[in-house]
Amino acid sequence: MTGKKSFGEWLRKNAETYLLEAASDEMIARYPEFCAKPYRDKGFIPFFWRNIFVPIYSRIPWSVRKKMILLSSYPTGERPHWKRISY
Amino acid sequence: MAQNNLRVIVVGGGAAGISAASTARTVNPEASVILFTEYEDVAYSPCGIPFVHGREIPDFKGLFLQTSEHYAEIGIDLRFQTTVTGIDLNKRTVSVGSQVFEWDRLIIATGFEYEKPDIPGSDLEGLHYVKNIRQAMEFDKILDQIKKVVVMAATPLGIEMTGNLAHRGLETHLVDEGGWIMSEVADPDIMEPVQKSLEELGAKIHFGAKVIEFKGSNGKVKTVSTTNGEIDCDVVIVATHKQPNNRLSREAGIKIGSTGGILVDDHMRTSVKDVYAAGDCVEVIHGVTDIPIQGLSGSHAYSQGRVAGANAAGGDRAYDPVYVPWGMVGGKVQIGGVSLGETLHKALGIPHFVAVAQGISRARYYPGVSRIRVKLIADPKTLRVMGAQMVGGEGIKERADFLAFSIKRGATLHDFAWMENVYSPPIGALMEPIALAAQAGLAELAKRGYQPPKFAGAE
């Protein structure tokens, strides 16, 4: 009932899923006593995101990554105005 | 200047919709305000539903904040059980079946929908979604007659339902794909006491298990089939992700962002002139990362509704980027935080430094004292704190609010390490756990050779 999704939504959902999965694996390695083995989907699509997207993303500096995220969030460049809070 | 005879239509009667309608009338008492809701009620606290099921709260009556008569008295025309079927932006109308209503300002507050499991058996009777209070009242009667419940997904709602149903004495199974509770939001070291507490209440937790089918007989769910085996049940609570409910907005041509939420600016204006939106159907800017996010708390929805209502009625109010203080009870333990935790900093790849310590909530000798674990996540260069997570027996909500306020104003580990704090044996320990975490972080950095900056004005 939420309607057809755009490419940007598809990209963000998948990127979030697999980046979070990779971060979870790091946390499991750090805190093994608090964690169980998570479920992981198998197949070509998860393979692509895990083995190609995530390693490439992790090599990009955060300042560039942030620009990429914002670019994919507003592909036409029309970002609504929000007050900047900086101290 | 307030416009006379302004026609404001609000679509949705949740926290955002009702606060938008009320504020519009307050800002412009001459405005006509119609609010459409597909449900039977407005102005109740859906967040309280799990606690009625858990018998922590005696009945549903206490969850209602206002009567419908109150809204009529303040001039809001509430249309219950009325589904808006279309929005025409050119004609500036909304349709309710064959009826058409004109507006000068439109406020969309259509809220969220749960992600429906796309697996066999998802149409069986006995799958329950926690949202509508009337359905919750009926479901509560069913809970009196059953023994076994499966809660699908260890989301915040899933945790609250698991704890409450176990507290009620039902055999409660929590099934989740992750490696720990609330793994998409919180860190494992923070959530471990929650898991223990839920297990002490009798809940059975199945990690790393994906639900692949609901099996039933006579049209009713009887078994949940997972990748790790089958679990018999009488009902299933589906506590999956909340998605923005934006079918109407998409069809109308209002711009939607990458989160699936409606794009709005800091005045809650959408991409279309005179159309505003607020609550779970919109995306807003995260104060630390500057990235759009969606799906926050009822208090965020309420505040956004107030801003949308004020501006729609002719006012001029802005909504700040969000720092997302959050808190909840999992089992018998309080958890909370601000902004992102360690896991999400890792996922996004934001450079960060983690400062952790354990303190106590009251004087160590005072009855009721409990441990509080505080984790601060800071920028390794500036030492500005970017996020926090906490777990303890009490005082988590107040610390989350304080941290959100401080982080918004640029507080660093130095600020927290040297903060003043209340010391009073029944309510506060000599050493504030937040300060202890910041001090531990600075001590760790000192070991690594970090030189703290001189204080402003120091010689």
Tags for this model:
heterodimer; A: 87 residues; mainly alpha; B: 459 residues; FAD/NAD(P)-binding domain; 3 domains; 5-stranded parallel sheet; 26 strands; globular
Descriptive account of the structure:
- The complex is a heterodimer of chains A (87) and B (459).
- Chain A is mainly alpha-helical and 87 residues long.
- Chain A has helices at 7-30, 44-59, 62-73.
- Chain A starts with 6 loop residues before the first helix and ends in a 14-residue tail after the last helix.
- The mean pLDDT of chain A is 91.
- Chain B has three domains: 7-42 and 80-112 and 243-312, 3-Layer(bba) Sandwich (FAD/NAD(P)-binding domain), CATH 3.50.50; 127-240, FAD/NAD(P)-binding domain; 326-445, FAD/NAD(P)-binding domain.
- Chain B has helices spanning 15-27, 49-53, 68-73, 133-143, 156-167, 188-200, 247-252, 298-312, 342-348, 396-408, 413-417, 433-447; strands spanning 7-11, 32-36, 76-79, 86-88, 93-96, 99-102, 105-108, 112-114, 127-128, 148-152, 171-175, 204-206, 211-217, 220-226, 229-232, 235-238, 242-244, 262-263, 275-277, 282-285, 292-294, 325-330, 333-339, 353-360, 371-378, 385-392.
- In chain B, the strands form seven sheets. Chain B has a five-stranded parallel beta sheet with strand order 3-2-1-7-19.
- In chain B, helix 1 (15-27) packs parallel to helix 8.
- The longest helix of chain B has 15 residues, at 298-312.
- The relative contact order of chain B is 0.12.
- The model of chain B has no long low-confidence stretch (mean pLDDT 95).
- The chains are: A mainly alpha (87), B alpha/beta (459).
This entry's quaternary arrangement is heterodimer
Percentage of residues in DSSP E strands of chain A? under 5%
Order of helices and strands of chain A: HHH
Q: What is the overall pLDDT average of chain A?
A: 91
Characterize the overall form of chain A: globular
CATH superfamily of the largest domain in chain B: FAD/NAD(P)-binding domain
Distance between the termini of chain B: 53 Å
Mean pLDDT of chain B: 95
Provide a count of the helices of chain B.
12
Q: How many domain units of chain B?
A: 3
Extended strand count of chain A: 0
CATH architecture label name of the largest domain in chain B: 3-Layer(bba) Sandwich
Quick one: how many beta strands of chain B? 26
β-sheet strand percentage of chain B: 25-35%
Greatest contact between two chains = A-B, 45 and 59 residues
Strand order of the largest sheet of chain B: 3-2-1-7-19
